[in-house]
Amino acid sequence: MKHTLSVLVENKPGVLARVAELFARRGFNIDSLAVGTTERPDISRMTIVVDVEGRSLEQVRKQLHKLVNVIEIVDLDPEESVSRELVLAKIRVTPETRSEVIEIVDIFRGNIVDVSRESLIVEVTGSSRKLAAFEDLVRSYGIKELVRTGKVALPRGK
Amino acid sequence: MTGAQALVKSLEEEGVEILFGIPGGVLLPVFDALYHSPIRKVLTRHEQGAAHMADGYARATGRVGVCMATSGPGATNLVTGIATAYMDSVPLVAITGQVATNLIGTDAFQEADTTGITMPIVKHNYLVKDPRDIPDVVQEAFYLARTGRPGPVLIDLPVDVSRGELNFRRSERVDLPGYKPTYKGHRRQIKLAAQAILQARKPILFVGGGVITSGASKEVRELAEEENIYVTHTLMGKGAFPETHPLSIGMLGMHGTRTANYAMCETDLIIGVGVRFDDRVTGKLSEFAPHARVIHIDIDPAEIGKNVEAHIPIVGDAKTILRELIQVLRELKKDHPPVDRREWNAQIEEWKAKYPYNYDRSGTGLKPQFVVEMLYQITRGEAIVCTEVGQNQMWAAQFYKVDRPRQFITSGGLGTMGFGFPASIGAQLGRPGELVIDIAGDGSFLMNSQELATAVLEGTPVKVMILNNGYLGMVRQWQQLFYRRTYSCSCLQRERRCPDFAALARAYGAMGITVTDSNQVEAAVREALEAECPVVVDFHVEPEENVYPMVAPGAPLYDMIGDLLYPVEKVHPEKAEEPFL
Description:
The structure holds two protein chains of two kinds.
Chain A: E1 3-10, H1 15-26, E2 30-37, E3 43-50, H2 54-66, E4 70-76, E5 81-92, H3 98-107, E6 111-115, E7 119-126, H4 128-138, E8 143-148, E9 152-155
Antiparallel strand pairs in A: 1-3, 1-4, 2-3, 5-7, 5-8, 5-9, 6-7
Chain B: H1 3-13, E1 18-21, H2 28-34, E2 40-43, H3 47-61, E3 65-69, H4 73-87, E4 92-98, H5 114-118, E5 124-127, H6 134-146, E6 152-158, H7 159-163, H8 187-199, E7 203-207, H9 209-214, H10 217-227, E8 230-233, E9 248-251, H11 258-266, E10 269-273, H12 279-282, E11 293-298, E12 312-315, H13 318-333, H14 342-354, H15 368-378, E13 384-387, H16 391-399, E14 408-409, H17 420-430, E15 436-441, H18 442-447, H19 452-458, E16 463-468, H20 473-482, H21 501-508, E17 511-515, H22 521-530, E18 535-540, E19 550-551, E20 560-561
Parallel strand pairs in B: 1-2, 1-3, 3-4, 4-6, 5-6, 7-8, 7-10, 8-9, 10-11, 11-12, 13-14, 13-15, 15-16, 16-18, 17-18
Antiparallel strand pairs in B: 19-20
């Protein structure tokens, strides 16, 4: 099963390298990793999705904790947290398919952020599952390029 | 003041009395500032020597060892020494010079990404970019190195930072929001452990390097004696519990005693203190201690459950936890009838009597084990023993019994050949009045023999005892046992032994003695011990002697091979799987 770890780290140079190096060295695979600032300038939040179980998950958490710059690690419960991911997709369109694609984008509450004669760049936000469903639907039109941010997540308010 | 002066002042405030290193281009400001400092500077002949000396000093004294090297090759030469300290949890602060901040990343002369290179082998490291950070960085580095699970910390200091100016100001105390080691054990867990101990029929106390780091030897002894529990130790735990104590069953693992290994196979309760269940100790993991519940006491939570499942984990400082555990046991025992362990104790005594370490004493050749036995007898077991790595290390571990912590200094985790000799110099400088011996192999000693110059000039009368078999002995042993006796690149000699170690020693101004016969051993050792200078004794031992007993890599602990004097006997009939190497 995939686990989403929300990791608070000191905002210092080299912290990302330390985390990445740790994962590489201990043989843990990262599904996705997103880093960004938080409400506090001295602290960053990493949202790391890992596909590990049991003892390995415990090792990931404990080894991460040993990094001096890591302050807190929370294994987010999917029920008790909100997660989002953003995708930018450059989709091939023709005069015939353009409106169909726009309709799909509307259904997914996406935005069209760039228009050209042969393609649209679309921005969609949501859970990883929603983005996968969107990708699936537009694939037949032709995805010229695509990028996903990786998941970011926060625990729900109590 | 300058950054370099701030560094030196910070080191002095940390109580540093000695450091080991070699200057170089970008480190010149630091060495200039050190010139008038009361800190003793030991100029080594290779940076690796500096790291191992600082390490040996730290292991022998319990204080933080300090080493220094310049940027690029100086720093990379430290790497093996830092990794050695990391694997054995030794408090070390390594300070490296770095090219000026505006040159970092340009492949400048003698530039290497030192913080990047050392990231996986340090507890933490710093690249200092502002001279004003120096006082706090040094304070943090020493704090990190010596607290929690100790380890090496590296400070990389660009030359413009050490030349820069600052007003020396240091924080009142270290504030690291992400670093809060646990010292006190969980009360409920300690109670559970106590109950398990009182119920156990076949308990074993299993102690490692963590006991020595924590200074918990007295508590281990109290626990063992009050509960009448036999004690086995890891290589790193040698000295944590007196090996001459009637409750000691010696080292366990690959070259441990049959008693300890059999006991692990049969025990119903392992009380692991400051151990990490390394593969050299467990043998085949899936068959390790199949009947045992495990109490695991360690300061590093990541060690608990890493290799072996812990039924009762207790995170914290060994000494603190054992103190509490002993108290709880005393309370609980009042209304707890003692479990009858007579059968177990009799079994262990039987093994102990039947399976002492042994070797074939019948031949005429000079046996390496005999040399170590003589060393033990002549020094009355009181020397500080450093070792190299390989057969010499295992024979030292088997035949030189140690009763005190910090008396046996060896590279356990990384297995660094060339460690022992510089470590012995560091140990001697840390404990000047004591006898320090390096039990060496001919292969290992040559890896850092240049430090003979340091030993001679610093006046450290260390005694190097080379068990010279003309081979990379442990490699040869494995080739003999697992590779059809194909001695591929393990033979260090041709028609004659090379070099002449005694002559090499003399070339540096040390004393050199060559021993080729058993009846010369005692006189040679006595002569070496009486000398006030460093001495190298070159014992030409039997070339194809093996370390036994041996658990083949990947085999379970009960499957020990190769005792010459006893038939191979198994507690369990199952066959071991094909060894993995």
